[in-house]
Design a protein that fits this description.
By secondary structure, the protein is mostly beta strands. Helices cover 4% and strands 34% of the residues. The structure holds copper (II) ion (CU).
Length: 429
Amino acid sequence: MPPLVPNTGRSYNPVVTLNGWTLPWRMNNGVKEFHLVAEPVVREMAPGFKAHLWGYNGQSPGPTIEVVEGDRVRIFVTNKLPEHTSIHWHGQRLPNGMDGVAGLNQPAIQPGKTFVYEFVARRPGTFMYHPHADEMTQMAMGMMGFWVTHPKAKHPLIDEVNRDFCFLLNAYDIDPGSYTPKIMTMLDFNLWSWNSRIFPGIDSLNVRLNDKVRIRIGNLTMTNHPIHLHGHEFLVTGTDGGPTPKSTRWYEVTTDVAVGQMRQIEFLADEEGDWAFHCHKSHHTMNAMGHNVPTLIGVDHRGIAKKINSLIPDYMVMGERGMADMTEMEMPIPDNTAPMMTGEGPFGSVEMGGMFSVLKVRRDQKPGDYSNPGWFKHPEGTVAHEYTGPLAEPARFKSEGGQSMPRAQKPLAPTEVKVRKPSSGHDNH
Ligand SMILES: [Cu+2]
């Protein structure tokens, strides 16, 4: 959804929630009132792949809540889940009884009941909300949302930007062919998502050349995510604790967002093109894969495949040249399964999944236009291409070098290693 431009209350420059939306409010005697409904939802995580999740107001993650520093905020929370819940307003300064830890700060909200939270959004910055009741289940099921408190006036540490994007990092474990996440999974998730969407089902970030861009990221998974941007350097201008002092900022191209943390990055989009933007853990840019698979790179198993085929006719050999073949393989997969890695680009498959998107920087993108401009048209002669001319002999590694603690004994006999090349099938020494 395009940014929700405020028509009541104080003005601000709204954020864009990737594949998401901002919750409308109503003003009631100077109080900003929101209504969140915790309920089961169906989330299309990528075209053709749907997950049965829990979320808020029809979606997981829930809608983004945007307010202005100093706003008095009242949030009604209705529980339509089969079990009790609560909401914790992650990072906020608020009265202790509004902090949302069930059992500690309030009784849990029972199914069918509505609770009301009320506090003043005292500090500008980037926040999240999530349940603090049966957290393991409810967060594994997708219950979380973004919260942005805009500064009430020009702030020395908060720059004005042309584009302000936000998304939450989340992870699910959904067996191929099924719909509901396995809630007991602790680390080995098979779907790594941004706002409960997986590449290629994630919005691109479309900006105008020389726009000042802010991206706000919150992590509610069980592991850290080094978020990496191509083609530009950025500054981390804010954390969950608020804007960072200018003296602490340095340029990076990757920033680690640890569990429970938020990071705000900012940069000048001054390089035209389609720039990859992704988590740098390579398993987090894959979809629905099993991890308990031995490596088969370099193994010639033509003979074995024939033998197994007589027992299991559908048996296929995978991965002897790497895993890239997987994108081309016409393999029967269960219904409602996301392809492991995909994404058709202008030059072929991108071979990615999960936490991956594209920053699209265009000269002719209109201010405020968030629509996808299509593929970048590279200027003549600026794309890597096949070379067929003559080449000098390339340099190759020749010596292992020394060692720091050599043994003062007679030298060991040389070891012979047998290597089987997958292409030839002959032994090479
Ligand atoms: Cu990651």
